[in-house]
Amino acid sequence: MPKSINKVLIIGAGPAGVSAALHLRQSNNISPVLYEIRPEPTTLGGAIGIPSNGSRLLGRLGLYEELLTRASSGSDLVIHSVKGHVLGKMDQTGWSKEKTGFGYLRIKRADLLDVLLKAAQNAGIPIHYGKRLVGINETDEGVTATFSDGTSDTANLLLGCDGIHSAVRKTYVDPEITPEYSGISNVFSIVPTFQLPPAAMSLDGLNATLVTDGLFAITPCTRSGDSIYWFFSREVTMPGSGYTRDGWEEHGKKEVDEFKATMDGFLKDLKGEWGDLLRRVVYQTQVVKFYPIFRLPLGGRWSRGRCLLIGDAAHAMQPHASQGVSMALEDIFLLSRLLQKPDYSLDDVFSVYDQRRRPRVNEMHKTAERNGTVRRSTSGWRLAVNEIVASGALWIYEACNLDKLGLGQKGLAYDVAEENLDL
Fold it and tell me: Which family, according to UniProt (predicted)?
């Protein structure tokens, strides 16, 4: 490990920041201190998908088994037609689970963060809330973060784990890089299944339907199946002045009723019991979250001096490959390995880190963007053609046992522990 790296400041106490603190404490004997802009742990967000590459690293953190008691582990992607029948299905992580021993997790973001925070508390890791970063200054010996309340702290290393709107990036590392709107927005919510027809309790994996205006999907997000996470993803013109960094929630009866009327229009062509179930899910929704999907352009700077950006702060991508948490975990584990190299300076660490992570991040970034294209508006006849193509492709996939070839899953079996760390 580079000499005198014994304390790290971590800006952001979401999944990336808390995971970084836990792993650097466990594997590098570095003392982490977390600083979070919000006044308390956030409950923002719906459910998070974590495929094999991420769930394996959660296993190495010692948290996978506990997360499994809270998460849904169904890994099938089931495509339903507008007329209500199943076009086909495929296992999204069957091959990668066979290779890694870890499958797919779909978990409420609040549950994931709760498990991480409890582990941090048990490890005695300090977390300070209500801390808005306003300045970063470096010397030869350390880096100092200053906060809006006038307090400051100094360490040997600073990690920006503060998401796509990172203050560390904007304040110090790369102020020129700004998030760009993808053109796609999500509305989503979590609904208790006791309010829904019995068919909702038997759902497994991600169940998706393409409509002319986008993609509607529902999936269990708890081990017991007592909650369903749903989202509708579609093209939306750049949000206006009402946009905030976290989107917004609608709680009021009037707003939610108006939303339901709008969704009725999007789902009007859905037939059969499947269409009835989706409309019932929307009808039972009490709180709606709207989230415009932003991303960071490829090629930005990730480090400066003693500061390094981690996860979405460095390379936020669209969520359509379920890689947000997994990419952050890979970042953290690679950094940890590099910090264990006794002959590397911090400049060496960041240089090798950048060289090894860029190709991997770029690959997943492009996959997520490509997967997002099915959310775009289309005509009725084009949708019918797309359903025929999807049905045929899924039939061939199953009939020819193409899952045995690992198509689309080889990236999920990636192991950051196998990366070459040589300069």
Answer: Belongs to the paxM FAD-dependent monooxygenase family.
Q: Which two tokens stand for residue 84?
A: 């209500």
Query: Tokens standing for 180?
Result: 């760009």
Helix H, strand E, coil C: the string for 181-240 is EEEEEEEEEEEEHHHCCHHHHHCCCEEEEEECCEEEEEEECCCCCCEEEEEEEEECCCCC
Exposed, middle or buried, 191 (CB in 10 Å: 0-12/13-18/19+)? buried
Domains and CATH numbers, the chain: 7-46+57-70+109-179+297-373 (3.50.50.60)
Reported residue count of the chain is 423
Tell me if 256 sits within 8 A of 250, measured CB to CB.
Answer: yes
Residue type, 194: F
Contact 180, 294 (CB under 8 A): yes
